[in-house]
Request: fold
Amino acid sequence: MNEVQKMQEMERPLLRMVTEDISYDLERINSREARVAGARRFSLLSNVFMSVALQDITACQHVIRVLLGIDDLVVREVRTQYTISKINSHDAILDILAEDRKYI
Reply:
């Protein structure tokens, strides 16, 4: 075995490790891109997005201020997918139940 062949034999495991690392990184990138593409399909009116995004009081407050046009509205508490049960009629499921500090 000459020197070139010896070097190639020594480099083969290293080359295999680098190839495996690149393959793993490509899988992670493709997986991330698929998740990002899925998230981009959500809108504020999407039930999944709204129930998660509006759990944050600051985000919820901003959305409600914009929708209602009340710039000084301060949200005290937020409950998403809040159910109001009725005995003699249908239940109501609210996207959010937010309370304003003015009406404590």
Summary: The chain has a mean pLDDT of 79.
